[in-house]
Design a protein that fits this description.
Oligomer: single chain
CATH architecture: Orthogonal Bundle
CATH class: Mainly Alpha
Mean pLDDT: 87
Structural class: mainly alpha
Strand content: under 5%
Shape: globular
Largest sheet: none
Distance between the termini: 56 Å
């Protein structure tokens, strides 16, 4: 199979999906361009901050994409390119994009509240508490997986002492990005420039940061970078969105779109051959079963529950007009699907004789090496292109960390703030636990303990939790649509399918880890947290799902 053919099929299918299905959903649910959005009505300069649609799209896309659409499809390629492609397109359109749009729509229609508050309003307070606990555990998994990936892309000194120039340059540029984002945030807030001016300034800042990164690389080991990444996450999760989150995502959006365009051009002009089988069977070479492992491995490339947290947690509080919801949510998800297809093409093009080149093993390295190879054939310098693509991947992951750390912190705080506000007898030390600094530290400590295991050991559990979160978000949005007399039938099949996939995957994980105990291979430092998280996620997921389905099936009063 030819990579260009796959890309054309995906681009046409996704474009049609937006025009036909996306607009159909918007018409069916109702969009009111004259209605004040929560960002305008409750503007507070911290979380509720109306912004230009291009800025919000940049935040949404950069936050939801992360390293997921690159990591997932490349790992899932063990089943062959055909099942991965089909799941990206079918799952992305009818489950992923629908969930994203439903989440942001429900949030904007409910004063910018999170999915947790929507569950409270339409399902009940117990359901909300269970969901918040689930979200907190999930956020810890995301922080752990993506922090390990970012630290790996910054690692300028290998375990054997060798220097890795590309990674060191990526580290320098990323540090400069953070500083530049703060300056850009103040510039946009104080000067309020036009979209064209802010775009020009952003591009100039990007070029300067990249150039300095190439000429002044910073060499450090992975352990040190992991410490620094967690220090950055702590600061980013408590900083006002206009000061760091918005401008950093806006900057990254230019870089990320440029990366996708570069990969797109590379595939178009080189038309690489896909050197992996179309289908390897229902059992992969490593023993993984197609169901449910394919679906939880592709993860963000087709559907991601994390998207509902970003959509309802941050993006919905920045939308200045309801008409922006469709492109910012449904549209951003389809672009992510296209990126996932590009990732699938890169691993297919780089594989020769069933093996990858020496020294290339992680998904970001595979993606960067393949795209650099494409563009080298067009006369561009391979080392520069490899550095830029690696930078883009790390920017994806770092941006997701910004958002998910904030989401995890808010979920933890919400677990304890409700009783404080209502005057009920709170949980002992609730005021202490509801403090944003304490909530952030609690989230990041557990994230660090999991991160040191490496993303390979976390990814299957992350994928299962991620897809289960999508199912729970779909259930809550379906209940909201029903209670507000809107059509929600298009959410029913996706949510039940995702429940079946994720419950099966989590049970497999628990059984597998339990087998290690009976076989004497269980390592407490490596497996205990994974087992505890798997059991808690399954239990919380079942309880929230049961409450949601009960509300969905009850007769109208």
């Amino acid at each position: 199979m030819n990579g260009l053919v796959l890309l054309v099929i995906a681009a046409v299918a996704l474009s049609l999906a937006y025009v036909l299905y996306g607009r159909y959903l918007a018409k069916k649910w109702g969009i009111d361009p004259k209605r004040k959005t929560p960002a305008v009505e409750f503007e507070d300069g911290v979380d509720y901050v109306p912004a230009k649609p291009s800025v919000v799209f940049g935040h949404e896309f950069a936050s939801i994409a992360g390293a997921g659409p690159i990591n997932g499809p490349i790992q899932a390629a063990m089943f062959g390119w055909l099942p991965v492609l089909l799941w990206i397109l079918i799952g992305g359109v009818f489950i992923g994009a629908v969930q994203d749009f439903a989440a942001i729509y429900a949030s904007v229609k409910n004063k910018g509240k999170t999915i947790g508050y929507i569950i409270e309003s339409y399902i009940g307070k117990t359901g909300k508490r269970l969901f918040l606990a689930f979200v907190w555990l999930f956020s810890i998994l995301v922080v752990a997986a993506f922090a390990d990936i970012v630290a790996g892309t910054f690692m300028g000194i290998a375990a054997n002492g060798a220097r890795i120039d590309a990674n060191a340059s990526v580290a320098t540029t990323s540090i400069l990005f953070i500083a530049a984002a703060v300056g850009l945030g103040f510039f946009i807030r104080k000067a309020q420039p036009s979209g064209l001016i802010s775009g020009i300034v952003a591009v100039i800042v990007l070029i300067v940061c990249i150039a300095l990164g190439l000429f002044f690389p910073v060499y450090a080991g992975k352990t040190l970078w992991l410490y620094l990444v967690f220090a950055y996450i702590f600061i980013a999760s408590i900083t006002p969105v206009w000061a760091l989150l918005q401008p950093r995502d806006y900057l990254n959006a230019f870089l990320l779109v440029a990366m996708i365009v570069a990969a797109f051009i590379g595939v178009v002009f080189t038309a690489p051959a896909i050197n992996i089988p179309a289908f390897t069977g229902f059992v992969a070479p490593n023993g993984s079963l197609l169901f449910p492992i394919l679906f939880v491995t592709v993860a963000c490339g087709a559907v991601s529950g994390f998207h509902s947290l970003v959509a309802s947690g941050t993006a919905s509080k920045q939308i200045s007009n309801e008409t922006h919801m469709l492109p910012i949510s449904f549209g951003a998800m389809l672009v992510e699907c296209l990126l996932a297809v590009l990732a699938l093409i890169t691993v297919g093009a780089l594989t020769v004789g069933g093996k990858l080149p020496e020294g290339i093993s992680t998904p970001p390295q595979i993606f960067a090496a393949a795209v650099a190879g494409f563009l080298t054939q067009l006369g561009l310098p391979e080392n520069v292109i490899f550095t830029l693509i690696t930078l883009s991947v790390s920017a994806f992951a770092l941006t997701s960390l910004d958002s998910v750390a904030r989401v995890g912190r808010l979920a933890f705080q919400e677990l304890f703030t409700e009783d404080l506000a209502s005057g009920k007898k709170p949980v002992p030390a609730a005021a202490f636990l509801a403090n944003k600094y304490v909530a952030t530290v609690a989230t990041l400590i557990l994230g660090y303990l999991l991160a040191i295991l490496g993303y390979q050991n976390i990814w299957p559990l992350f994928g299962s939790a991620n897809q289960l979160l999508a199912a729970l978000a779909l259930i809550s949005c379906a209940v909201f649509l029903k209670k507000t007399n809107r059509k929600g039938w298009m959410l029913y099949a996706p949510m039940f399918f995702m429940l079946a996939v994720t419950f099966t995957a989590l049970i497999f994980t628990i059984v597998q880890l339990g087998g290690l105990i009976s076989g004497g291979a269980f390592v407490i430092g490596k497996h205990a947290l994974q087992l505890i998280f798997a059991i808690l996620l399954l239990a919380l997921g079942v309880m929230v799902a049961v409450q949601g389905v009960q509300k969905l099936t009850e007769k109208k009063a």
